[in-house]
Amino acid sequence: MSGISRLVAAVAAAALALTACGSGGGADAGAPSASGDAASGAFPVTVEHKYGSTEIKAEPKRIVTLGLSDQEPVLALGSKPVGVVDWFKERPYGNWPWTKELWGDTQPEIVGERDDVSMEKIVALKPDLIVAVYSGLQREHYDTLSKIAPVVAQPKGFVDYGAPWQDQTKHIAKALGKSEKAQELVDGVAKRFADAKAAHPQWQGKTAVVADSFKPGEYSAFAPTDPKAIFVKELGFTLKDEIGTLAGEMNDAKFSEERMDLLEADRVIWLTSDLAAQERVKGVEAYQRLKVTTEKRDLFLTYMDPPIGASMSFNTVLSVPYGIDQVVPLLEKIEN
Question: Cα–Cα distance between 173 and 175 in angstroms, integer?
Answer without folding.
Answer: 5
